[in-house]
Amino acid sequence: MKRPILIHPDPRLKKVCAPVTDITGDLSQLAEDMLETMYDAPGIGLAAPQVGVLERLIVMDCVKEEGAAPRPTVMFNPEIVAASDALSVYEEGCLSIPEQYAEVTRPAEVEVAWIDQQGNPQKAAFDGLWATCVQHEIDHLNGKLFIDYLKPLKRQMITRKMQKLKRELARA
User: Do 53 and 26 touch, CB atoms closer than 8 A?
Assistant: First the structure.
């Protein structure tokens, strides 16, 4: 089931999420709903707080090549356990900040530990777009948005645009 995506500014997007202690049927269904919502948007990543659930769950799929098989990835309690000194700059966007993009500098490679949908511990290294995406989504779990990396003036400008968009959507 597709879920509505919260639009910034929303206080839930600035909250630190609680760790998942037990992967219940409800949480497993939430992960499936989030994947459906993300693909429909369309996006490459989505964090639970973006659909109003303050738990440490992210989904992502950075496969963009035409005809390539999708790689839906579900992570409960994802945590960056190592990051490269090398940096990369990607133009980031966010489903909670539609139509707004900005360059963000992050570690080029990260190693992430998480629990999969079956409750098994996982660990993997990510680079390129996958590394940027997983860091962006984990930031959401810590109440941080990509615009928090920007200079105050640019961040305020984007926030004002989102406030205007929310007013227009409320009138529609």
Answer: no
